[in-house]
Amino acid sequence: AKRIQNRAVVNESPTERLVKELKAENARLLQRLSRLGQEGRRANDETKELRQLLAHNELQIRAIQTLWEQHLQEALKDWEQQYANITQERRMMQMHPYILNINEDAQLSGVVKLFIQEGEWDIGLCDSSPRSISIKGLGIQERHAVFRNEQRRVTLTPLTGSKVIVNGNTASQTTELQHLDRLILGSNCTYLFIGYPSERGGDDWSRYDYDYFQSELAAAEGIHLGESSAGSSQTDPSLLAVFYDFIKLMPMVAEANQMSQELSKGVDFKLEIKNLALSDPKGHDLEKDTVVRVTSKGSKQVWMWSKAKFVNRKFLMEEVYQQHQAEQSGDNRVEGLSPVALPRDKDPFWDPVEPLLLGTAHLWLQSLAFRIPLEEQLEVLGSEGSEEAILQAQLVPCSSTGLPLGEDDILIDPTEILGRRLDFQLVLDQCCGLRWIREARNRGVQIGFRLFDCSQPLYTPAVWHNVNPLLDHRVHFASLHTSQRLLDYLQSSAVVLELWGLQEGCTHLTSSLEAVRMTTEGIFIIDESGPTETAPVDSAELSCSVRALQQDLEELKSVNASLRKENHSLREQLNTARNGVEGVRGRSVRPSCDAEFARALKVFYHSMTSVRGQLQRLRRHRPSEESDLLGLRLFVDEQSRLLRDFSEQLEQSVSTLKQDVAAIVRRKRERSGVWS
């Protein structure tokens, strides 16, 4: 702070300072001449030189004053011209419709007014024609569109190859404009149409800002803010942040696409919203994120860029584009390579290819808690809910040697596996209808997954050039001492199966098995913590709940033990009856209640799998964006039919389970009454 020096500077113009210096110098010269005259010295030569300097300074002062007066006159003329222009503009505003510019900077909005007088007017880069409206911007053609003002009606007709958007929708034909219509010409030239004075009224134009235009574009693409689940007008903050990211990136993506087109890069940019719930084992609706999908039209290579990466690359694209424009105009010749032919490692439009996450599918693990096999056809859904493929997968409870378990090994009470060994196999049979490979045959896929506490994801071998590839991939998992944490995981979670797309030139995804514990037989060990691990108790209420659950568990175990004991005695009586013991001869041998109940549970579980599939179809059933009134009616009818089928299927499954349980209980009581 002590080293800071302040210097006072007089606030004056350079002209004023020069005049002041000349006048001071003239005063010094006059004083010197008078002093020479008083001394009486003969200094004709010096006096002559001084008088010449004095005359020269006087001429400079007069010239500066004349120039200052000329500047003043020119400024006065400019002011008069501006006043005339403002007066003319106000008069035109009261006579004709016009378009008003809308800028991202609110202070620059409304600066440009382009009037549409009667007749036909071309709008674009051209300014040679007397009936043309000249505008400049990215994506603006020489003749971009035509305005027609006839009989107090204004229409806009896009020309071939030009991009025109009216109120968020792309216009390809003649459109009649209404007061306060929103126009986007080219990539991002935004205007608000102001109709005749008789149409204006007292409308508030301030709400039509730059964000309004982008929100309208996003709504046309199906991206908009809805109400919260509680029905209030408050919106989820995470959804609000993603929405504003989306509308901020939309004009940048449009400009990137236009630069790619003009530079002949053959790269297409598209905004997408990534749903992070697709990677959640519990299927919860987590936060969303905005990403940019980059596609090379020629090679069909695809990249997925984050928001930050795209914004950084966008600045580099602008530098390349400006260099190209300067080279085209001849203002700045760039030595070396042309900006259009940059090497790939320096080209902002290109990246090294890498595996791309196409979508995910959830395989729910609840059946393993009952040691019931499960076979499913899973839909692999992309980030926007599109169907990427159908994946055939199985969960097979097995022995330690890999042999599938039978119906007698099905559990009624999942807690019976606590502390015991649990073996099962995850089988990925086939992937059908791969859209990724259908779009380009030179691609491949891999399936990745991570189960419970596996520290590293596991991947299937890569398959290439096949729309319906056979995977035939089987992985054996084992829990040596099943804990409560693993049991809770099986009953409430799913294994997330990730579909990865491979491209030419990218490396395969490999499973890193260094940190994974395996047996000598190649079985992956999960739940290494053992059965002694308990969840921390956070409060007294949680502790009471745990104790109550433990009491219920003990009661269920005792009931199950008594049932098993009774079933054992019944089996002995049945065996005795088969050997000819009196009292039970002639009676038919029936299966035990445990086996009957297990079969009923298996039937119910398979029916609930079908119900879950029906629910997924119902969630994905949406009307087309281009549907008319008839199409919406057909959609409502189809939706009603799906709801009716879903309700009937659910009621039938529950009713069947109730009937089976009632029949088992009734037979149990009958047997108890006969053999008591």
Concise structural overview:
This protein is an alpha+beta fold.
Principal-axis shape equals: elongated
The total of helices stands at: 12
Low-confidence stretches: 227-233, 332-337, 531-539, 581-590
- Quantity of strands, as a count: 24
The proportion of strand residues reads 15-25%
Strand order across the biggest sheet? Answer: 2-1-11-10-7-8
Helix content: 40-55%
Radius of gyration: 41 Å
Beginning-to-end CA distance, first to last residue: 103 Å
Mean pLDDT: 79
Q: Can you summarize the main beta sheet? A: 6 strands, antiparallel
Structural class computed from helices and strand pairing: alpha+beta
Protein name: Kinesin-like protein KIF28P
GO molecular function: ATP binding
Coiled coil: 539-580
Domain Kinesin-like KIF1-type: 310-358
